[in-house]
Structure formats: C-alpha cells, structure tokens
Design goal:
This protein has 14 helices and no strands. With 249 residues, it is mainly α.
Length: 249
C-alpha cells in the first residue's frame, strides 16, 4: 500500500523562527522516498496507536534521547524535517534488539524502520553515518578482506574490560576450552584470517553487485580505496592460479 497520501501526513510547518530548512525541501523528500520505497517499509509500518508500549520496553530509551514511538510517528506522518533531524543522531542509539517489534499491537517494527533510516543515511553520505561508522573501519577492513574479524585468541580480559563482572569468564583456561570446541580453523588469528581465495573473490563480487562497496565509498573513501586494491590483487592471484590449473590440464 502507498503512504504517499492521506490525512495523517503532516503539513509542512517549518522552523517557527526562520523559513530556512537544514536541507532543501526536495532533498528532504528524496531522502524520505528512499526510505519509503524499500520493499521492507510496508511490512515494518502498519499504523500507530501512539500507545508508547514500544518506548516503554525499549532499553535504549532508558539511557538515550531515543523513542521508537517518535520514529514511527515521524514516518507515519511523513514529517520530513523531523525524519532528517532524527537521522542526525537519534537513530544511532537503537540497539536493534527488536523488543519494540515484539510488543507493538500494530505489528510495527520501529527497529526495522531505524535500519532503513540508517541505510538511507549511509546512501546520502550523512555526517552522522560517517561519525558512527568511522571507528569500525578496522572491523570492516578485516571482514571484507578476510571474511572474519575476531578469533578466540583475540578475546582477552584486557581487550574486553567493558564486560564488567562477566570479564572474569575470560580468565578461564581458554586454551583448553578452545581445543574442546570443534572449530580448529578459528583457534588463532592466523588460521581464522586465511580465507580460500575463490571464496574471498566471490564475497567481493557479492559486495560489489549488491552496492555495499558503493555505500562504503560514500562513507569512507580511503577505506574504499584500500579494499579495492586488495580486491584487485586477489582477483589477479585467482586468475593466475586458474591459468596454472589450465596449463596443468
């Protein structure tokens, strides 16, 4: 169903002090259209009783300036200025636990809507997205270049001090525990980060075809350039290996 028309749509009020908007009206509409056109949108937004159950059960709402109900209301009323404002900070407070979706009597998923808004923020190169994702550059590089980010031998008490009382579990005889887990390829960073060349190139191709790399370029051009260099090198290595196999045949 379409959400483009209806009495629920909020009239453009603008800033009570100034007629200026953070972005032009057309750009705000473009951002909203990108959110609304996603195939998931009509599954995540079905209406709103404004009951507040989602916010009452939201862990993030207890600690941050964040309200799942506000997100739903902004999108339901197509409040373009409010949507843009929420994308600058509020949407990044969501923990994506989907408690809201489990509680909503209308079967809305505020967490799912936040995900759509985050993706739109990345697509449009918003500074909020860049600031949030910048600390994860190393994680993204490892994931894209090796397929893995963590291995068991990286988990140490010093590295996970924010676990609080649970950090004591890391002091267990980890070497013994790791050997008991039938995942020998994940025992160390060396073996965890050795990914089959064909698999690695296939992963690159998936990220390329699905637009992940385009979004990465929007957010972190330097990281994008590094990954492209790695990708080109691996593709050349794969071609050389395939040529060797053909010669042997």
């Amino acid at each position: 169903m379409s959400h483009a028309h209806g009495t629920r749509v909020q009239a453009h009020i603008g800033d009570p002090v100034s007629d200026a908007t953070p972005l032009g009206r057309e750009k705000l509409k473009e951002i909203f259209d990108d959110i609304q056109s996603d195939i998931r949108y009509d599954h995540e937004l079905n209406g709103c009783l404004n009951c507040g159950i989602c916010t009452a059960t939201c862990p993030a709402a207890h600690y941050y300036d964040f309200s799942p109900r506000e997100i739903v209301q902004l999108l339901w009323t197509e409040n373009l200025e409010g949507i843009y404002d929420a994308m600058q900070e509020k949407i990044w407070a969501c923990a994506q636990c989907y408690t809201c979706a489990a509680r909503c009597p209308f079967n809305n998923s505020p967490g799912g809507l936040v995900m759509l808004m985050r993706e739109a923020a990345i697509k449009h190169g918003m500074e909020s997205a860049k600031n949030v994702l910048r600390p994860f550059s190393r994680v993204m590089l490892k994931l894209i270049s090796t397929g893995n980010q963590l291995s068991p031998d990286m988990i140490t008490a010093d590295g996970f001090a924010d676990w609080g009382p649970n950090v004591s579990k890391i002091d267990a005889p980890l070497e013994v525990l790791r050997k008991a887990i039938p995942m020998p390829t994940l025992n160390t960073t060396k073996t965890a980060w050795e990914v089959n060349l064909t698999t690695s190139v296939e992963l690159y191709t998936i990220w390329e075809e699905t637009g992940v790399l385009d979004q990465l370029e929007t957010i972190d051009e330097n990281l994008f350039d590094v990954i492209i260099d790695i990708m080109d090198e691996k593709r050349e290595d794969l071609e050389d290996w395939q040529d060797e196999q053909d010669e042997q045949d």
